[in-house]
Design goal:
Butyryl-CoA Dehydrogenase, subunit A, domain 2; binds flavin-adenine dinucleotide; 376 residues; alpha+beta; four-stranded mixed β-sheet; 3 domains; Butyryl-CoA Dehydrogenase, subunit A, domain 3
């Protein structure tokens, strides 16, 4: 049976996320644009509203509403601020490896505080040696007694500064990759520089540095050699779902700004929404939102059913993030000269859209996943 309707519970969640976005986040967007920092009250609000607990079981303090629920929340938040949506999606990404592969002890120790928002999470895979090829990383983990000693530097990590907990990929041997749960109270583990991006102002992106970082060996997720599976499954199925949701929020924002402006802007004695050229642009955005929405929520529903969905997630991530770039461009064009003035959000949408391609794997990597599926 195909049923494209959301449940009543999911509709209520969407309303709650929209209220949070409009009442708490929207007034703080100009401040984020100015300072490139994430206000404390937004981070606190994510935990207070249970938005971080959606993927965590009740026994660990979560509300267990699943992947569609996470997508709804991220989409609604991103409609107002892509920066907040991005941080929220990577918090879920950091939680996922512990939920999917963590031992009962690891779940008991880390999940309750991640569910409540007392702690935030991230995933650290990318290094300066290249993100598309995770086997190119150079971070090492050397076993000494009951601890692993980690040395290395992760780059472009979302939530690098705010996260207390990070799932980090390291080499336990020349060709053996393992995943570890690190926390900021471990000696030798800290955030490095804060990266300033063209867009997503306020979103925490930076380095994670491990200098003789002492990690108890029980903090390895799975066994030695499981690292690529643990990290890449989370990135390909949860990180890409998150990026699709961020992109959907951005397309919706572009569409709403465009229709409002087109109905209000008078040229030749009538609103420009009457001009067919403007209507075509709106139609393209409208179609892209709907097509992207179907792709994305189908993939999230598959994940909720426990089905393999990496190819569907790659399609959703690729389609939506490309469409978001197009929507931002069209929205800016519809606004004429106003579109590039800082008082109008369209210039922010353009800059935010530029950040969507590399996050959770570039568009090329998604096309490789799709091509492999199509050709096999
Ligand atoms: C805002 C932001 C947030 C991020 N958050 C995180 C995070 O939280 N955790 C984390 O671990 N990483 C994070 N990343 C890193 C992200 O995953 C990488 O940037 C991404 O995987 C690309 O890696 P790279 O930047 O090293 O580019 P490269 O891998 O060097 O790629 C360079 C170019 O080569 C192309 N290319 C690479 N391989 C192929 C191929 N096989 N075929 C064709 N073309 C190819 C790419 O598409 C790209 O155009 C984030 C990045 C950004 C920008």
């Amino acid at each position: 049976m195909i049923d494209f309707r959301f449940t009543e519970e999911q509709d209520m969640l969407r309303t709650a996320a929209r209220e949070f976005a409009e009442e708490v986040i929207a007034p703080l967007v100009p401040q984020m644009e100015e300072t490139d920092e994430m206000p404390e009250e937004i981070l606190r609000g994510l935990g207070e509203r249970d938005f971080l607990a959606l993927g965590i079981a009740e026994e660990y303090g979560g509300v267990n509403l699943g992947h569609v629920a996470k997508m709804i929340t991220i989409e609604e938040v991103s409609r107002v601020s892509v920066a907040v949506g991005m941080m929220l999606q990577v918090m879920h990404l950091g939680i996922e490896p512990i939920v999917a592969f963590g031992s009962p002890e690891q779940k008991k120790k880390y999940l309750p505080k991640l569910a409540s928002g007392e702690h935030f999470a991230t995933v650290g895979v990318t290094e300066a040696t290249g993100g598309s090829d995770p086997t190119g990383i150079e971070t090492t983990a050397r076993l000494e007694g009951d601890n692993y000693i980690l040395n290395g530097r992760k780059v472009f990590i979302t939530n690098a500064h705010v996260a207390h907990v990070a799932v980090v990929l390291a080499k336990t041997d020349e060709k053996e990759f393992s995943a570890f749960i690190l926390s900021k109270d471990m000696p030798g583990f800290r955030a490095g520089r804060w990266e300033h991006k063209v867009g997503m102002k306020g979103c925490d992106t930076g380095e994670l540095i491990m200098e003789d970082c002492v990690v108890p060996k029980e903090n390895m997720i799975g066994k030695p050699g499981d690292g690529l599976k643990v990290c890449m499954k989370a990135i390909s199925e949860v990180g890409r779902a998150g990026m699709a949701a961020v992109g959907l929020g951005l397309i919706k924002a572009c569409l709403e700004a465009s229709t409002k402006f087109a109905n209000e802007r008078i040229l030749y004695g009538k609103p420009i929404s009457r001009l067919q050229g403007v209507q075509f642009k709106v139609a393209d955005m409208y179609l892209d939102y709907n097509a992207g929405m179907l792709l994305s929520y189908r993939a999230a529903a598959m994940k909720d059913r426990g089905e393999r969905c990496d190819v569907e997630m790659a399609m959703a991530k690729y389609y939506v993030t490309e469409a978001a770039v197009k929507a931002a461009k069209l929205a800016t064009e519809i606004h004429g000269g106003y579109g590039v003035m800082v008082e109008y959000a369209t210039q922010r949408y353009l800059r935010d859209a530029a950040v969507l391609n590399p996050s959770a794997g570039t568009g090329d990597i998604q096309r490789i996943v799709m091509a492999r599926a199509a050709l096999s």
